[in-house]
Design goal:
95 residues, mainly alpha, two-stranded parallel sheet, 2 strands
Amino acid sequence: MEGPAHTRHTRGWIRAQVLDGEHGRLVHDPENPKEIAAAVDEMLGYEEMYEACGRNGRFRVAGNFLVFEEVRRWLEVLSRVGSRQAASEEDTQVA
């Protein structure tokens, strides 16, 4: 059985990382044990949701938050910037 990635709160960057019900469950008040318990009970009560959130969370991390993916994105950005700069320099030389 694959478990969910998180049961967390909605403050800070976690909202960008975990979509409620897709990668785990979010709670509004991380200091409220009843709200946390209800979110955990819900996940444990629905095995399909529990497994899907765990699987989706792992795929989201692998595709968006690992250092290799970040490096790949930066290399793409630098490549586009370099291509634009080269094209701009060619236009300047022609003029």
